[in-house]
Amino acid sequence: MSTTSIIDLTDQIRKEALNESNGPQGGQSHARVLQLVDELKLAVETPTETILRLIYQPPENAALRTVADLDVFPILMSSESKKGTSATEIAKLTGADRGLIIRLMRVMASLGLCTSSEPEVYRATEKTASMTQPIGKDGVPCIYDLTLPTLSKLPEYLRRHNYINPQEYATSPMKWAVGQSQFEWLAGNKKHQDLFNSYMSSRREGKPNWFSVYPIQRLVEGASDHPDAIFLVDIGGNQGHDLARLHAEYPAYPGRLMLQDLPNIISSVDRPGIEKSAYSFLDPQPIKNARAYYFRAIFHDWPDRICHKILLNTVSAMNPLYSRIIIVDFVLPDTDVPRMQSAMDIQMMSIGAGVERSKQQWVNLLASVGLQINGIWNTGLGMESIIEAVPVADLS
Ligand SMILES: C[S@@+](CC[C@H](N)C(=O)[O-])C[C@H]1O[C@@H](n2cnc3c(N)ncnc32)[C@H](O)[C@@H]1O
């Protein structure tokens, strides 16, 4: 690409960065800056450099997974020396070979997860700090171990299955490669289930709450204020992190909040203001006439046939004139899908024949069970959207 294009992109980045610093957190400008930075990188790289960067991503992830295993990031964070921590000290504290530490930490510094301005010495940055928080310390090992064995075999799975789009949970790529799809595998691996739960509750840190993007007054107005009435059921709500936030930050909601998930997930949950009930969404919904049935990051785990079943199980419990379904998931744009979302789609395909959906795919899925979309709310590119759906009015 020409120098003019590079300078043009740099100018656009400058403009959007200024907008971002003046705009709301998690807004459109932030996503735009990230997109422009990716474009700038592509503009600067030669085609060969781009391909080499892609080819060498897997060893970076493997090195990161190993460094997380060795708990090197907490060591960097606890260093009292302003100069940082030496490879010799890290080797002593972890028991790993010093030569291995040097090779692994070279990768960490190149990924920006620490700095290394003098040979064999590593200093913590704010990214190092994130690697000691649940998003990094739990998310990295959980997602690596859950997905990598399948992703490494995905091309073979697709070749052997004649490149049919995976649409059956029972024969998903993960089931073929590992013997189980994601939720069975997690249920049988307590350590990873715990990492998964922790990662679930941490991965939206710093992003706006769904109820500050979606006008929650739409649910509050007209909701029953009877103390027994259920205001919102969070179905597949994991350990109740979303409900806890609603309870703490929007105490004006009327009625009760109910958390539902599989028994092994919610048995230990104890959160003020939140009731819980063990429930599989593959069965009919036992809580009738709630104001809202809320599903966050649920439907992307599943192919259409199973989503259809989950939705019908929910519709059967709804009062069509009162209840609403709230879905928080990605709504993929028709062009220029952000990298994270398009990659997540392949991950969902791999571990359970799931899918990230475009607006038309959502419209079709919901219409197939007699639901219509009232509105879709979003703060911008790269963020989850909030879809409100209701049963189609019976005009007969
Ligand atoms: C991707 S996580 C989303 C968790 C949470 N809603 C969030 O957005 O952070 C999917 C959740 O669905 C739950 N789940 C899986 N199968 C389920 C089933 N049959 N019935 C109820 N929950 C289920 C999992 O235990 C997990 O908590």
TrEMBL record:
PANTHER family in the record: O-METHYLTRANSFERASE (AFU_ORTHOLOGUE AFUA_2G17820)-RELATED, PUTATIVE (AFU_ORTHOLOGUE AFUA_4G14580)-RELATED
Q: Does the keyword Metal-binding apply?
A: no
Q: Which residues form the active site?
A: 300
- Which one GO biological process term can you cite for this protein? secondary metabolite biosynthetic process
Q: Where is the O-methyltransferase dimerisation domain?
A: 62-126
Superkingdom of origin:
Eukaryota
The record's Gene3D superfamilies line, in alphabetical order, gives: Vaccinia Virus protein VP39 (3.40.50.150), Winged helix-like DNA-binding domain superfamily/Winged helix DNA-binding domain (1.10.10.10)
Query: Is Methyltransferase one of the keywords?
Result: yes
Q: Per its record, what are the GO molecular function terms?
A: O-methyltransferase activity; protein dimerization activity
Checking InterPro entries in the record gives:
COMT-like (IPR016461), COMT_C (IPR001077), COMT_dimerisation (IPR012967), SAM-dependent_MTases_sf (IPR029063), WH-like_DNA-bd_sf (IPR036388), WH_DNA-bd_sf (IPR036390)
Location of the O-methyltransferase C-terminal domain = 225-371
| Name of the protein described by the UniProt record | O-methyltransferase domain-containing protein
Q: Which UniProt keywords apply?
A: Methyltransferase, S-adenosyl-L-methionine, Transferase
